Amino acid sequence: MNIIIWIIQLIFVPVISPFCVGFIRKIKAKLQNRQGASVFQPYRDLWKLLHKDEIISKDASWIFTFAPFIIFAVTIIVGASIPLFASFLKNTLTSDLLVIVYTLAIGTFFLALAGMDTGSAFGGFGSSREMTVSALAEGGFIFSLLTVALIAGTTNLFAISHSGMFTNSKYFLSIALAFIGFLIILLAETARFPFDNPATHLELTMIHEAMILEYSGKKLALIEWAAANKLVIFVALAANLFFPFGIAETVGLGAIAIGIIILIAKILVFCFGIGVLESCIAKFRFFRLPDLLMVAFILNAIAIGLIR
Amino acid sequence: MTEIITSAISFFSLIILFAIGAIGSLLFRKSDKLANLFGSFFAIAGSLYGLIFSISAIISGSVLSFSFKLPAFPLLALSFHIDLLSEFFIFVISLIALFCSIYGIGYAKHFYQKYSLGALGFFYNFLLISLFLVVTASNGIFFLIAWEIMSLSSYFLVVYDKNDENNVKAGSLYFIMTYAGTAFIITAFLFLYKYTGSFDFAAIKANVGLIPLAIKNTIFILALIGFGTKAGIIPLHIWLPAAHPAAPSHVSALMSGVMIKAGIYMMIRIFLDILQPAPVWWGLVIVIIGAVSALLGVLYALTEQDIKKLLAYSSIENIGIILLGLGSALTFYSLNMPALALLSLMAALFHTLNHAIFKSLLFLSAGSVINEVHTRNMEEFGGVIKYMPQTALFFLIGSMAISALPPFNGFFSEWLTFQSLFMGIFQLQSFVQWIFIIAAGSLAFTGGLALACFVKAFGATFLARPRSLEVTHAKESPLSMQVGMGVMATLCLLFGVFSGYTATLLAKIGKGFTIFQNTVSPIAVASNQGINITNGFASASGPVIFILLVVVLSLVAFAIRYVVNKNQKIKIGATWDCGTDLTPRMEITATGFAQSIVTIFKRILKPSIQHEIEYHDVESRYMMKSRSVTLGVGDIYHAYLYKPLHKVINVLSTRAKNIQSGNINAYISYIFIALVVALLLVL
Amino acid sequence: MLELFLKIFKTRKNIVPINAKSYEQLEVLSIGGKIQDKVKRLFSGSLAIRQVDAGSDNACEQELVALGNSFYDVERFGIHFVASPKHADMLLITGPMTRNMAKSVKSAYESTPDPKIIVAVGDDAINGGIYKGSYAVLDGANSVVPVDYCIPGDPPSPKTILCYLLNILETLDSKQKK
Asked: Please, what are the domains in chain C?
């Protein structure tokens, strides 16, 4: 029974992530008064890319070739280590808050190096901007997760979602502030508005897309899939650490089924929110982004200070 | 067997091995090759023996204490006290010295016919001897003698490459700062002598109750400034970015990895061992200094184009992280939480070890590249990965370790530091809690900025196309250099994967302190090597993360390469740059990479741009002949600390000049007044 | 902000509605449905197009951009535009191939991974169009890269582009069947 639950936990994030990306695109299309591609279109895109040939630049080194695998493997490991639909699982090995943050940082590291590897101008400044945003977002990321960790008394993510701290109303303000901070970090790390436009064609406005302009074929499929995985990881963290209602707290087929359904519902609510946000505001000018990230950090610091 | 290895005679034979290396190196100075091999061989032998000595001593938990009294000098005694902390530092020193010496065999070949290899061997071995003496000395004056030998030998090594006058200037700055620091240390020891009546550390520790609190605080500040200058805390760090790049690379590795830790060692010794019990604010001051050093260190590292200066600033950042651990240890102990204090001390010691390993690895790899390309400027590197693939791999492992990426060792020591800060936030209140929150915030930002810094360093040096012709002539380094770097890279991985075992040993070392003797260990290491902080607050497992990464990576790679679309063809083409001609000038430069961060932090870093334009016709100034733009970064501590200090010293010296009026009558009256005052005092 | 949303519901009453019963939209939908089937069969449901401007007067580009608006909405058929030729399946070349752009279009062609389709859109790209014979142009994309298919028109309207795209896909389909 446990094995089955762990297998579902492992494959949940990679299987559901293209659907979430398709869902966000569909919401944006509907808000623009048009039909848009079907929600399953990203699956077809990935399938097609996996069957295409590749062209690799002659200036690239082995880092360019290995980076997509490392980035994808990292998102799989992190996806399996966060609380998704079951909070009774005991994962004391990789489920620590700092392990998650720094394991995702491995992915960022290699993506930035791959962007610089081919020596194209776009990849270089894409890496520079990505590292700037990522460096400043890390403070807010650790602190927002730290707030809920301090409230629950442990940094193990499964234990935090199991702790039932919402029944205690005195933590409400802290959790609310930390949640707002975490939302800002979510937008930053998953390259969404107002930090980055995932659908832009103008290289000068790209951050994440600029680093992958040189990839084609299977490696491009892996990187796009990894980006979708990262989106689902962050949304699942937001859903389960700050609103752990409905997560399966006891072993049982019914509880797990309800857990999965409620998780998918929560993820879709967040995706809807992201889609609406992307249709309402414009992308910020790059040098306004550090202000936003600092706001996230300060909100989280205040939230920690407010914990009694 | 262990008895023999961990005896006094064994320690002396260790010192003698290095002494033979030093003297032999000098004797054979006429033959470059022989001097190099002789000096390196004995350094390697000594380091190996030091490793055996320290490992068996730590495992058997033995404490050595012996001294030789010199009848001629009543206050000076050659006394050694080798407890678990000293053995740990001996381990660190021997480990780094071993690989730097192996690397040095190949590296020193570049100095044949240019400089005296005998002098290099002599000062290198003497530096190592003095390092061993510094971490084991137990008498104040003996310690100061060892400290002086360390400063002098490192000075001569810094100015070894005499032909470049920047190196000589760097050496002078280093000399002045070191001696300024030593002056503070001497004053601290004099205060200790006055109130406890002895220079012997054991005696001082026993009589620490005799020192009044105000004097204790003074000693704290003096020792902090003195040892902080050696460790490189901001704002006393100005010698570090000048001196470390100037020295030969294996010496830079030794200095950055080990010598600045001598300052940390003495801070631990004095604050945690000798001067306990201490007030709370000591720990808080060190935490704040650590937080500021970490953040400013990494910010200045981001602005640098000289690769060795970047690594030097990064050392300052890591010293800040070690001080965060040390400061929280002091704070927790003063607030009666010894288990947490032990945890923080373990974090500080672990980071000391890890930083020594990965910083030396980075300096050694940078040294190989600089040797081949003959410049330290990162803007002239680029594409080196194709010419020096092994060096690139080792630098990559070093960068991943220093950016605290799992499963390498840097992650686990930063994890422990974070956990000790988190526990502080969890269990402390009000004012102290806010200092810990700010410290944790600074550590979080430092981690992110260090990641950016090393993406810049690795990317600008090794990736994309070569930016200068020299790079295309580069060849991979000789075998001895590769062995030195390769084993250190493996150690980075091993200390990360086996962090549970290391943490248990560090807990044992921490318990060797008198104050922690009866403390319950704050960590429990499970069978899967997972470190668990007590009360289930946190846990992380090195081997599991490593195995997961390897397994998932291989599965994904296998599935994608062989299962999906086996018939895929991969062509080699050109980089797409919107159809323009790609020149090396189009790649991102090291300056450009960091420019966003520099602009964001411009209030702290104060970047400046200067334009110089040369016109064809000076009067009409229409057509430009050439234009040069100089980008610079201001130093805030120069503006706020050193310039005012400089001004004050200048003003005082100018006033003091008035005494020398040249008038003989004035001089005679000075002698008369001095005589009268002396008579009054005596009578 | 709220008014912006409410406009989505109010606008229907103010303008001439475009509903499925209108002749124009019906045509687009029928062509589009067939394109969608072909794309599903030939390209696994996803066709990535990169548009390369070989010195054009932007008339064709405007028509191509119109393909993405809410009337034609080519994205619902599984076709989308990408920024880099390395991500693309199909290159749409517009413009009469000026001498300055010849090298760039060639490098865009070489950067597109196989399998790829090259389509020349507009009379200019087919044989030089109104610029034919000028000293500054090379008379059509065929002089630099091997063009597979052509979409004539100066510029072709979005519906024409869709019709010709369907033709191209049907030709590909019958070629594959053989």
From this structure: 25-170 (3.40.50.12280)
Give φ, ψ of C91 to 5 degrees: -105, 125
Query: With an 8 Å Cβ cutoff, is B527 touching chain A?
Result: no
Query: What is d(CA C117, CA C92) in angstroms, rounded to the nearest whole number?
Result: 9
Neighbours of A29 (CB within 10 A): 19
Q: Which residue has the tokens 């992650």?
A: B411
Other Cβ atoms within 10 Å of B156 Cβ, number: 17
Segments making up each domain of chain A, as ranges: 2-136+156-164+198-281
Decide if C78 touches A, using CB distance below 8 A.
yes
Phi, psi of A80 (to 5 degrees): -80, -15
Interface membership of C127 toward B (CB under 8 Å): no
Q: Cis peptide leading into B241, omega within 30 of 0?
A: no
- Contacting residues of B for C108, CB less than 8 Å apart: 576, 579
What one-character-per-residue DSSP string does A156-211 give?
BHHHHHHS-GGG-GGGHHHHHHHHHHHHHHHHHHTT-TTT--TT---GGG-SHHHH
Phi, psi dihedrals of residue A234, rounded to the nearest 5°: -65, -40
- Give me the pLDDT at residue A91, please: 74
Task: Please give the biggest Cα pair distance in chain B.
Answer: 105
Neighbouring-strand partners of residue A55: B571
Cβ contact (<8 Å) for B418 and A106? no
Instruction: For residue range A127-148, list pLDDT tens digits in order.
Output: 999 999 999 999 899 999 999 9
Residue B412 CA, distance from chain mean position: 18
Two structure tokens written together for A82 = 């966060």
pLDDT at C172: 84
Residues B598-637 pLDDT 10s: 999 988 888 888 998 888 888 888 888 888 988 888 877 7
CB contact burial B355-391 (16+ within 10 A = b; e otherwise): bbbbbbbbbbbbbbbbbbbeebebebbbbbbbbbebb
Tell me how far apart the alpha carbons of residues C176 and C117 are, in angstroms, rounded to a whole number: 14
Partner-chain residue, chosen from B569, B571, B574, that has the shortest CB–CB distance to C107? B574
Asked if residues C51 and C61 have their Cβ atoms less than 8 Å apart, the reply is yes
| Residue given tokens 């590749």 in the structure block | A54
List residues in chain B touching C: CB distance below 8 A.
Answer: 569, 571, 573-574, 576, 578-580
- What residues have CB less than 8 Å from C92, skipping those under 6 apart? C49, C50, C51, C52, C64, C119, C121
- Which one is predicted more confidently, B226 or B208? B226
The position carrying tokens 């599991």 is B544
Give the SS3 label for residue C50. Answer: strand
Cα distance between residue A298 and residue B438, in whole Å: 10
Partner-chain contact A48 C46, CB within 8 Å: yes
Q: In DSSP terms, which residues pair with C52 in a beta bridge?
A: C93
Nearest Cα to Cα of residue A190 among A87, A299, A267: A267
Domain boundaries in chain B? 1-276, 290-563+592-605
State the burial class of residue C68 (Cβ atoms within 10 Å of its Cβ: 0-12, 13-18, 19+). middle
Task: Determine the residue type at A241.
Answer: L
d(CA B435, CA B291): 10
**C85 near B CB under 8 A:** yes
Q: How far is CA B220 from the centre of its chain?
A: 22
Burial B302-315 (b: 16+ CB within 10 A, else e): bbbbbbbbbbbbbb
A193 phi/psi in degrees, rounded to 5:
-55, 150
